[in-house]
Design goal:
With 322 residues, this protein is mainly α. It folds into two domains: 119 residues, no CATH class; 178 residues, no CATH class. Helix content is 86%, strand content 0%. It contains 13 helices and no strands. α7 packs parallel to α12 and α10 crosses α11. The longest helix is centred in the middle third of the chain and has 35 residues. The radius of gyration is 20 Å and the shape is globular. The two termini are 31 Å apart. Keywords: Cell membrane, Membrane, Transmembrane, Transmembrane helix.
Length: 322
């Protein structure tokens, strides 16, 4: 039942993306966006069709297998993207990188888990009733979180010059590196451990805080060093033409420290079965981030990044103390 629910939701999101692609294209005054969004829409059914298989692998703590699948898919995807970029496919090289990554990951997750859906059990309403609240709240949170994480680029792309968007996007990807490399991996491996101790509040809190301290031990010096050395780092790696990225990175680095902790809080609420709280925090975060983006874009990109930090600090407090 969970598999079919996820699959139908993925198809629904894909159809929504297809339906709204002309509006998005019109908003950005870019006709090519319609075809780009049509290609990207394939991702949602693909990823949703493997979410149950991935969950089974995570429950069995097969994180080494998951990592090998994702690394293999990522390498192939990047290779295809580089080849297409060399052949002057432009933005479509990035689109197909994402599609291929999701397609390869889906195939391998299905193979690794060994589980197959059953058509006869597509509509087991008793099973759906038990998990509908959990899954519905989590799905809404994921949708809100995805929108919040991409709204900055949408707003900058609409109201600022393309070079500014490029500089910000590069700085954001650099900021995201420790989150993707450390925090997301830690949160994924932490979930089954916390789930086993969901009724033991003391042990759950201790395990979670130990994980947070370990993340901060690595992220704080890394991002602090990156902030102080942002200009020589960017010049050395990317060249002087990306100096604006260095200025933005100086302000985004503290945001990475905050988000390295914020992105793990969802694991606790999921382990406790309180995805309703997670959804409410997601709504609060979306309001804070959108307010910061709308206010910041009225000035300049540095002010934009500064308001982003402030929104993260405000969002951090209720997420940690709840």
């Amino acid at each position: 039942s969970i598999f079919w629910l996820n699959l139908f939701m993925g198809i629904g999101i894909a159809l929504s993306v297809i339906a709204f692609s002309p509006l998005v294209s019109s908003f950005f005054h870019e006709p090519k966006l319609i075809l780009v969004l049509l290609c990207i829409s394939i991702i949602f059914p693909l990823s949703s069709s493997s979410s149950a298989h991935l969950a089974l692998l995570e429950r069995e703590s097969k994180f080494k297998k998951i990592a090998s699948i994702e690394i293999f898919s990522s390498v192939i995807g990047v290779g295809v993207a580089l080849f297409l970029a060399y052949k002057n496919f432009g933005v479509y090289s990035l689109v197909w990188q994402t599609v291929i990554f999701n397609a390869l990951s889906t195939i391998q997750f299905w193979k690794a888990s060994g589980w197959r859906p059953c058509l006869k059990k597509m509509f087991v309403f008793s099973g759906l009733k038990e998990i509908f609240g959990f899954s519905a709240h989590l799905s809404i949170f994921n949708l809100i979180n995805y929108f919040s994480r991409n709204a900055d680029s949408l707003i900058i792309g609409r109201y600022m010059a393309p070079p500014i968007l490029g500089a910000y996007s590069l700085a954001y990807r650099i900021m995201l590196f420790p989150l993707a490399s450390l925090t997301f991996v830690a949160a994924r491996s932490l979930f089954p451990i916390l789930s086993k101790n969901q009724d033991d509040h003391v042990q759950l809190k201790k395990t979670y805080l130990d994980c947070v301290y370990a993340i901060l031990f690595l992220v704080i010096p890394l991002m602090s060093g990156l902030a102080f050395l942002s200009k020589p780092f960017v010049i050395l790696i990317f060249g002087k033409q990306w100096m604006l990225t260095a200025d933005i990175l100086l302000w985004l680095a503290p945001t990475a420290i905050i988000q390295s902790v914020l992105s793990t809080t969802g694991t606790v609420f999921m382990a406790k079965g309180r995805t309703d709280i997670l959804m409410k925090l997601g709504i609060l975060g979306m309001i804070l981030y959108m307010s910061a983006f709308i206010a910041g874009v009225q000035f300049n990109i540095i002010t934009f990044a500064t308001f982003y930090i402030i929104a993260n600090v405000i969002n951090f407090l209720p997420a940690m103390f709840l």
